[in-house]
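Hey,
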Amino acid sequence: MIHDEDVQPIFLHNMKGSRIMVIGGNRYRRNGEGVSSKVRWRCTSHAKYGCKAVVHTINDEIVYFWDYHTTNVVAVYDYSKRGSKVLVLNGIKFRSNGISGSKVRWRCATHERWACKSIVHTIDDVIVRYIDKHTFDIIDHRIVAEYEYTKRGNKILVLNGIKYRCSGAAGSKVWWRCATHEKHRCKSVVHIVDDVIVRYFDKHITDSPEIIFLESETIPTNAKPWKSVHVAAVFECSKRGSKKLVLNGVKYRYKGMNGYKIWWRCATHEKWGCKAVVHTINDVIVRFINEHIINDVAVYEYNKRGSKILVVNGIKFRIKGKNGCKVRWRCASHEKWSCRAVVHTIDDVIVWYINKHTIDVSAVYEYSKRGSKILVLNGIKFRFSGTAGSKVRWRCATHEKWSCKSIVHTIDDVIVRYYHEHTFDPTV
């Protein structure tokens, strides 16, 4: 916002006869009339380029001047060897790309070769827009490619000590991939035009945060599934001479191959359906899917009737059914308390354990002054609400007064469910 009495406007008429104002070489069109004799003027490039320069005048005298042009750099031109006009900005050359009215579009001279996206718009030899999206700094960072040759005579690009192989070409542009792409799927890529590097994707696999480098030959047991690693593989041979991978004391069998990559499955996959998988490339572990199933040995007892019972963490499970070599077991309290805990075993080994036991706290009772039976849990009293078979429902004693929603279910004086939704603070 500037109020400069020394700025003297010049008024002209365009080809259509409309009055325009010129200040410092910039043209302004009439935008509207304000209170009394005040007139608003906008830069002529406002409609096209959104220029925000504004001038207010009263009786052709400037009373308000906001000199906020999008850009007001005067264009500098040069001529190529063939005589073509070239725009020069910051030492970079731009070629004419098209004309729309008085506006001229210019593209970076490297657009055709290197797909540079830098653009300049000019009106009457004044730069009104500059999109600075160069592929790289042509003046200061022009990197010339260096090459070597393999023993077989193949040409190899060398950049920062890393070798790249030719991946393809399109016109004068050549793509180069990291030499480790086939082995380790390295994503680093280099683009070259006329032996000059115009694009460099520095995405080496050794710099990826998703990869863990370990000095030992073991992987932490708490490693996340589908986590990438780089660890030297250790192998053994079975009695039949088959090669086996050993990791963290667990054996893996050969599953398949894709190029240089080899898949290994846990040796218990066929028996127990273990989903742990290891990927290796040139005897180096590059991926470890740590999804082992439970492999605890089952412990059994027999009840008074001679039925076999599974015991896990002191809790008894009864046989529920069989499917091939897999046996399903349910918690012994399932029929009484609808306990949902389930165990699956294969060849006396626990492969699945759903630990969803219900509450098994013994109920404590008291009696009111009138002799009614009351359940007491954590110092809170519950009154009898109803029965359904052997199950008894109890409501919080404050339900009638405060509509407390807390409920307790008991079966044979054992609490099997507790809805802890008190409408008050039980600790107060």
